[in-house]
Amino acid sequence: MARRTAPAPALVAAALLLSACAQPGDSSAASGGGQADDGGDIVFGQLLGITGDYASFSPPAISAAEIAIEEINEAGGVLGREVTFVAEDARSTVDGAIAGYQKTVSVDGAQVLGSLESDSIVALFDTITDQQLPTMCSSCGTTFLDENGGEYFFRVTASDSDSGLIAAQLARDSGFTNMAMIVQNTEGASGPAEVAETAFSGIEGNEVSQVTIEPGASSYSAEVDQALSAQPDVIYVGAGIEAGLPVLREIDRRGYDVPIIVSPDLILDETTTVPNADQLVASLTAFDTESPTYESFAERFRAETGDEPSPGLYDANAYDQYILFALAMQAAGSTDGSDVAGQIIDVASAPGTKVYSYAEGLEALENGEDIDFEGASSSLDMNETGNLLSPQLSILRVTDGAWTPTESVEIDASLRPSN
Amino acid sequence: MSSLPFWATVLTFALVIGMAALLLNVEAGWGGMWDLGIAGQVAVGAYAYALLSGAPDATVPGLGLPFWAGMLGAGAITALVALLIGWPTLRLRGEYFLITTFAFAEIIRQVIVIQRGLTGGTFGITRIQRPLAEYFVPSAYPFVLLGLAAVATALVYLICHRVSSSTYGLTLRAARDNEPLARSMGKAVDRVRIATYSFVGGVIGLLVAPVYVWFLGALVPSTFSSHLTFLIWTGLVIGGIGSRVGGLIGATVLVVVSEAVRLIDVDPEHASRLAAFQPFLVGVLLIVLLRWRPAGLLSERGAFDRPAPSPRPRASADPAREAVSA
Amino acid sequence: MQNIVFGLITGSLLAVATAGFALLRNTERFLHIAHGQFIALGAFLGVVLTAQVGLLLGALVTIAVVAGLGALCGAVLFDPVKAQGGNVLLFTSIGLAWVIYALLIAGFGTQVRIFEVSLGRGRDLGPISVAPGELVILAVAALVILGLWLLLNRTGLGRSIRAVASNRELAQVRGVPVVMVTRVVWALSSGLAALAGILLGILGTVTTELGWSNILLVLAAAVLGGTGNILGVIAASLVLGVVMDASALVIDTAYRPVVAFVILIVVLVLRPEGLFSVARRREMVA
User: Fold this and answer.
1) B262 at the A interface (CB within 8 A)?
2) B93 and C286 in contact by Cβ < 8 A?
3) Cα–Cα distance between B261 and B251 in angstroms, integer?
4) Which fold has domain A160-284+391-415?
């Protein structure tokens, strides 16, 4: 190889050339917000961790999204145009999200983005806001969105703050005073756990002890033992299935027979098989299994995947996102990002004619009505930060090998930290 | 739809990995120090930069220093950390050095997770400011960032180039090839090694980590896992260990090929199979390359005057041990 | 006391996982990073087969299949590049690790899998509580390790393996069937990995990241154990397991993953050839 000083000048030149290509006047940038619209199919995008740590959540989310897109197209599409669906891999990492986002937006031309995970949201927040892309997330609890959402970010699942509060509330209302918490050291688990701990320990006379676990360890015996040594009358397990299941089994092996409050990520079929399933209790914006939207979705989901929809997998939430996007776009009368984003809270929330499917919503909009789409995962009513308005939470327990909603509760606002 | 922003983003990431591979080459290719903990150095640099230049009123408060001060500070801090790690570790050789650096990287990552007050823990540092962002249309920024990355890469390349042709670099390679001889000639082998290790850390903190931080926009500890180390190493191996530009070429090939896989159109339900194609491709590339062109795409031969490695095992000892140790 | 029992279980699983790794390291002279993926492969194959034909048969078939695959990989992928040295072998192994990882995702999908095996309730045995299943795991691990030790030290095959491990060229000159030994070692190593994967899967869950999350610890145990007798590696694994679980008593459990690596670093800095290495290898220290 001949001696060269560097390919560096060549690199710099190439980069400058590329920068020149990106001057304003680039015809692919729309004058308004969001993506260029070439008048063909509308593209709905999904960016989630198909590989990596969140991989197990992606197949049901993709299936659910596809069911939504099918329903939309069957009813005639949005603004008379067909909708195409693309799913891109964020690799459950920040750099994967950055590259995946660029692919979804600049190559695929997505005009809306769904199913973002917490990591992706914090990484892409500024970029998405700058590019005015309506974005939703169906399974992200990150407290980051508590205050920052509402303009381009919307969430169809409860915030970690709420899931944490409800756990503390449950424990308090059942009369427990000594809680041992076993919490996985990831953002999704420690977020709600922190809220729960603050709320519970804030009550006079209550004790809380916490033990941290790392996902991927071969066993958790020592940690469980540590937690049980505090002689708790209630246990809180905040973890994903990978660590959560062995922890639950270990609690059973030690023969410790108190109620175990589990985080929403553990509301799965697999958890119902543990020997101590009767001790488990959880809370989530449970799917309203009576609602027509849920029934129609569940039927198709069963046909498509052979499984029941599961709150812990947020599949119905994923479905709701895309119906909402379609209705908002229809209501806005354009695919312009800021216009669409401006309609999302309206079509999701009261007041308005209640509709339970895309076709119904389309018809109502065409009649000039205001609509309120009631989703398969919840009523979807949102507040101005794009979060679910006082989500109606349901207490779930395991009966006959399945997670069943029992009573409904509302969050006791007095448990919220006063800031 | 224009795919230029996508490719600009991909190339930016490729340059980050490429810079890291060039520096790894100085340590490993020329210095014979097989560092499996390079992700830890990038982590230190990244967090140092983010904390030095972050706004004081952000969720994870920073010192609010301007970009260039953050870069200099990150460089100094990373060099210091590398010094502290290198001092006990560089006595070890071969796989012992390998595993110890691996262990240190893992410890660094865990400390970042645990010290939530300082680093934001698993919640991370979010909404990191990018330089020059306010002067450009959002859709143009990927190209600006690519330009910045290219400038940084050019600087890293020039630095490595100077090292290679200096007496310092010659001492390094002499010690790698025949340590007893180098010592007997009075070369301060230990000092040169630790200086190199610390110096590489410094450049990572000064240039590589800040560019990576601008690319990511947010820092979470899981970004700096062993996957990153393996990615950088694979880039270096593909390009050719020892070659002055191999790491850069190899990393670019690796990242571009991996991301190009995204362009294959596939039904969403097969998305996981497609996503799995990327590690598959990387693995196959590595295996095939090592089998038929183990020196990598480019090799040190020609760039420096050094006889080609003999394919037959030498009578004295296993050449593997020769290469790994020294 | 209870924590020591936990530690022995963790440690014995680690020992099974690391024994295979160490075998390859000693005889083939490289760090087989893909060993982690063989563990994962064993776990996945094991969980799928167990659901079909029960645990015993499922486990045996899995171990046999993975052992065979290992021998095949050794012959096809690693033998041709053996002459290039340990680094090339290391990176070939990293490449193989990625290939297996990708195939696991493509073939088994990404959802978490569970062994339908219960370990029973904990019974009190004096000051400690152990579940019957945990005792079984401990017993299986101990038996396998004992069997391995007997194989290596009391059989002709074991003698051949040790000869190749100590000096390949000399063994060849002395008429030891080196190629056969290589195949056997690969098969043994991969089979042990598969068993470790099954045991780990029973104790925890089976995910696609299983391989990557275990390889670091295996690496640590192997290096700590040194390159002498396989017993060194076993002992190091048990020590690591016990220390990690016992540490929960004194420090915040959040530090548990760090404990193993801190120990590793401290030991290597003080005793660079590992805890139990009998012979100092030339390249340990400058």
Assistant:
1) yes
2) yes
3) 16
4) Rossmann fold (3.40.50)
| Superfamily of A40-158+294-373 according to CATH | Response regulator (3.40.50.2300)
Q: Strands A83-89 and A42-48, how do they pair?
A: parallel
Give contacts of A124 with chain B, Cβ < 8 Å.
217
The upper half-sphere exposure of residue C141, i.e. CA atoms within 13 Å in the direction of its Cβ, equals 28
pLDDT tens digits, B16-72: 999 999 999 998 888 888 898 999 999 999 999 999 998 888 888 888 889 899 999
pLDDT in tens, C87-103: 788 889 999 999 999 99
Give Cα A328 to chain centroid, integer Å: 19
Using a CB-CB cut-off of 8 Å, the residues of chain A touching C208 are 51, 55
Which string of DSSP letters, residue by residue, matches chain C? Answer: -HHHHHHHHHHHHHHHHHHHHHHHHHHH-S--TTHHHHHHHHHHHHHHHHHHH-HHHHHHHHHHHHHHHHHHHIIIIIGGGGGG-HHHHHHHHHHHHHHHHHHHHHHH-SS-B---------EEETTEEE-HHHHHHHHHHHHHHHHHHHHHHHSHHHHHHHHHHH-HHHHHHTT--HHHHHHHHHHHHHHHHHHHHHHHHHHS-B-TTHHHHHHHHHHHHHHHH-SS-HHHHHHHHHHHHHHHHHHHHHS-GGGHHHHHHHHHHHHHHHSTT-SS-SS--TTSB-
Nearest CA to A89 out of A41, A53, A64 is that of: A53
pLDDT in the model for residue B154: 96
CB contact under 8 A, C254 and A273: no
Nearest alpha-carbon partner for A52 in A100, A123, A114 = A100
Please enumerate in sequence order all residues whose Cβ is within 8 A of that of A56, keeping only pairs 6 or more positions apart, or say none: A241, C110, C111, C112, C207
Chains that touch A (3 or more CB pairs under 8 A): B, C
**Domain layout of chain A by residue ranges:** 40-158+294-373, 160-284+391-415
DSSP 8-class letter at A153: E
Chain B, nearest residue to C267 by Cα: B100
Non-local CB neighbours of A135 within 8 Å, separated by 6+ positions = A112, A113, A114, A116, A121, A128, A152, A153, A154
A94 vs B161: CB contact, 8 Å cut-off?
no
Q: What is the ipTM of this complex?
A: 0.84
A296 touching chain B per CB within 8 A:
no
Are B147 and A12 a contacting pair at CB < 8 A?
yes
Report strand pairing: A234-238 vs A207-213. unpaired
Q: Which residues of C touch A252 (CB under 8 A)?
A: 121
Rounded CA separation A239/B24 (Å): 37
Interchain CB distance below 8 Å, A212 and C111: no
Residues forming beta bridges with residue A78, ordered by sequence position: A81
Q: Tell me if A40-158+294-373 shares its fold with A160-284+391-415.
A: yes
Query: Maximum CA pair distance of chain C?
Result: 57
Which residue matches tokens 């896992």?
A: B225
Q: State pTM to two decimals.
A: 0.85
Q: Do C200 and A223 touch (CB under 8 A)?
A: no
